[in-house]
Amino acid sequence: MKKSAFFVISLLGLTLLSLQPGLNEFHRPPNIWTGRPDPFLNHCGKLEIREYLRLSELAGRSGAVATRSSMPGRSRIEDGPGVWESLGPDGGMIQGMAVRSSNPAELYAVTNTWPSLVYKTTNGGLSWSQVASLSASSRGIALDPTDANKIYVVHYNGFVKSSNGGSSWDNYDLGGNCYSSYSSSCFYQDPASPSTMFIAGEYCYDPGLGKTCMAVFKSTNGGEIWTPKTIFPTSDSGMAYCLAVDPADANILYAGGYELKGSSYLGKVYKSINGGDTWTDVTGSISYLVNCLLIDPGNSQRVFAGTNNKIYRSSNGGQSWLANIGYAAHDLAIDLSNANVLYAGYASVIFKSTDGGVNWSYHSSVHGTCYSLLAATSSTLYCGSTAGVYKSTNGGVSWQESHSGIVATSIPALAVAPSNAGSLYEEVRYNGFFKSSNYGTSWTRLPDFYRCDSITRIIVSPNDSRNIFILAGG
Question: Do 125 and 270 reside in the same domain of the chain?
Fold first, then answer.
């Protein structure tokens, strides 16, 4: 039976009373093989609870009942006249990001919602505008290094590209029984030969039993036709969660992920020196699911692998690995001017190394869970998280929200104070608990607290609006 807990919050002293003690889990259990919240647990961005508000309460009008739409950033009138707009807060579940190498102020982001939304900024994240809405569950996004009009987005079992800056999109299948991974680092395009591309994922070699193996899909004609480069398992199933390609030689690539043996998920790294035609197991001492891989662009013998409990480094092209215990990574980034400076994003934490990955330390944090980490310049970093886009201009020492205009939040609960229609409370999934005192014009993040899951119901006391009742996990 699903656990739930009932809480009472008193805003007098921000005290918390749990009527069901012992439930101290903060997040829904992660997807068992990726270590990340399962993107389908919230039905791909759909709001699970639709709260009905009387317009007479919000705007002094009567006779109209409205609801927030089940799609991110959209609203509609259920009954009666009116025009609706997003009240925010801005941000949302960012799945992947890409920066224009010739212009660090131009970035694109794709959301983990249904439909997936593509956003663009030309001013370094000060403001964003929506470029496209794709009927897909997107994984990652990339920009063509030689043609500024070409944008690529990987989705569950396909690949879409735009040749006109996002005005229109062409969709291509990966092929039968071929599926991409969940990672934002599942795609690579060869800068020396832009028509050559790779996508990490899984190939279902036994559809009857649902068995899959690690695979990398390769295209040599700009993504129109894909060929599976399978890594047939020595186990029951597997998935190539991420990949890294030698920037000096696209025939050398690494695929990281997992293989399932019985009930055990084993971290795996394979290497190919012939463009994926054959693979060699170079897992070595890596013992956990591999979330991300990174090759030093100035020294391809230096390879880094991020897992959920360690960060590994190799100085000999994967022949052996050394582990940094106590650190983890969903994504890795390297300083563009100093290859000894590396960053790792895991959960809400940003780790940093200044000695080429030999030692790591806690550096800073963001809201939400960081799944995409970009180094735009030697000091400017971007983090795409479940809460939105965050930007640092001092090498990750501090971060600021940088997602104005992005509307991709999932809001499972919303409430209005009966005694003050301008006071709104809402739960933003994988982000936090927010309050507005001005009808949603601006929002303030309230102090966080332990709960067994996302808040699914909010009730403001009609007698004292400082008392709020919430249901978490119900």
Answer: yes
Q: Do residue 172 and residue 44 come from a single domain?
A: no
CA-closest candidate to residue 298, choices 272, 337, 254, 270: 337
Domain range spanning residue 33?
Answer: 5-89+409-472
Q: Which of 26-30, 174-178, 394-398 has the lowest mean pLDDT?
A: 26-30
Residues 317 and 384 in one domain: yes
Over residues 264-303, the pLDDT tens digits come to: 889 999 999 999 999 999 999 998 899 999 999 999 999 9
User: Of 401, 422, 450, which marks where a domain is finished?
Assistant: 401
Count Cβ neighbours within 10 Å for each residue of 113-145 and write b for 16 or more, e otherwise. Answer: bbbbbbbbbeebbebbebbbbbebbbbbbbbbe
Whole-structure pTM value: 0.82
Count of domains forming the chain: 2
CA distance 412 to 150: 36
What is the distance between the alpha carbons of residues 273 and 146, in angstroms, rounded to a whole number? 25
Query: Pick from 71, 256, 257, 224: which is nearest to 158 by CA?
Result: 224
